Amino acid sequence: MSIEKITLGAGCFWCIENIFARIKGVVSVTSGYADGDIENPSYEQVCTGTTNHAEVVQITFSPEQLSVEQILTVFFAIHDPTSINRQGDDIGSQYRSTILFHNQAQQKLAIARIAELTNKQAFEQPIVTTVKAANNFYSAESYHQDYFTNNPENKYCQLVVVRKIQKFLNEFSYLLKDEDLIPQAS
């Protein structure tokens, strides 16, 4: 089985980590920081907006089980790719919409997907998602990993993350791993 990685920023990493971890063919999802100016930033540093890092998830997946096209379809469905440096109430450059590709095929597919969505006028506003080569990724602190599962009673999780997970479950149940066929989000 071959393995690939793709790194995606779609606002707060807590919102998208749990979603991608549920998908067939995903081996692992790591919340972290990428595309910034300093090495090994902390969450507190990234939250200042001065490090130029984006909150991202790095997805390790089997392309035999899950295509980049499928990943991008989910990515564009679960966040607002037309909002510059913002997702809902999360405001700052760390919440930007970005695709950090790990190979030329991913780059081409990302650019083509954005062009397709633009041509279809899938969104009322222009897509602002950046497409760049993955250049630096730093894993977030351990308490950020699998945050929703470990903190389901957190108010942000209840108000924001649960809605995104439910939207994903409603639209993409066919992509669920077998053990996730019964939704666990409340």
Layout of SSEs?
Blueprint: E1 4-10, H1 13-21, E2 26-34, H2 43-47, E3 54-61, H3 68-77, E4 86-87, E5 90-91, E6 97-101, H4 104-119, E7 130-133, E8 137-139, H5 147-150, H6 155-172
Parallel strand pairs: 6-7
Antiparallel strand pairs: 1-3, 1-6, 2-3, 2-8, 4-5
Structural notes for this entry:
The chain is of the alpha+beta class and 186 residues long. It has one domain (4-180): Peptide Methionine Sulfoxide Reductase, Chain A (2-Layer Sandwich), CATH 3.30.1060.10. It is 33% helix and 22% strand. The protein is built from 6 helices and 8 strands. The protein has helices at 13-21, 43-47, 68-77, 104-119, 147-150, 155-172; strands at 4-10, 26-34, 54-61, 86-87, 90-91, 97-101, 130-133, 137-139. Strand 6, helix 4 (104-119) and strand 7 (130-133) form a beta-alpha-beta unit.
